[in-house]
Amino acid sequence: MVTRVSTRHDHGTMCHRMTVFVHLLSILVTFALGSGCSCRHQSGSAAESDPVLDQVMRVYVSLLRMPPYRPPADEANFKKILAESGDSILRRAGVRTVDELLVSPRDSQPFVIAYGKEAPALLDKGIVAHERTGVAGRRLVAYSLGYVRAVDEATFGSLLQGP
User: Fold this and answer.
1) What is d(CA 8, CA 146) in angstroms, rounded to the nearest whole number?
2) Can you list the positions of beta strands (E) in 55-137?
3) Is residue 2 a part of any domain in this protein?
4) Does residue 149 sit in helix, strand or coil?
5) Would you say residue 102 lies in a domain?
6) pLDDT tens, position by position, for the chain (163 residues)?
7) Which among 141, 144, 57 has a CA at the least distance from the CA of 92?
8) Which domain holds residue 31?
9) Does residue 4 form part of some domain?
């Protein structure tokens, strides 16, 4: 009697592992390419830039650029992705935890991030995240094109209004 040993792996598990691998690889490539580039399309001073929102934007944009080409479903999903991305993101942002990464050090409020079904409202305007209140009449806005810019309240209002 011959016993057959199956070497076949569960297809679903393999697909999940491959998807996680592709996500992580894409995030690493995004950071590798972006870390050498200090060009920011930002009006205002360097004091208005924010490494925290910059790192949030980089991970978010990397999700839009790889299958399944969609934003995180919700905050819990995004936190999981950020945690799986490794400590280098936290170090670049100058924070210790994923929870700190999602809060603006300027206004101490959680960032407004485009999640799930509500995401198109911001993404259609090219925005992936922004400060909730900002500082001194200016808010940092992270764009899907891969940059962060400080804008005044009038500009911010017109960005949300759209055409």
Assistant:
1) 41
2) 112-113, 127-130
3) no
4) strand
5) yes
6) 555 554 455 555 555 555 555 454 455 444 444 444 433 333 444 446 689 999 999 999 999 999 988 999 999 999 999 999 989 999 999 999 999 999 999 999 999 999 999 999 999 999 999 999 999 999 999 999 999 999 999 999 999 986 6
7) 57
8) 13-35+42-161
9) no
- CA–CA gap between residue 113 and residue 60 (Å, rounded): 9
Residue 6 lies in a domain: no
- Non-local CB neighbours of 128 within 8 Å, separated by 6+ positions: 57, 60, 61, 64, 71, 113, 114, 122, 142, 143, 144
Q: How many domains does the chain have?
A: 1
Q: Which two tokens stand for residue 116?
A: 């799930």
DSSP 3: P
Entry pTM: 0.72
DSSP letter (8 states) at residue 117: G
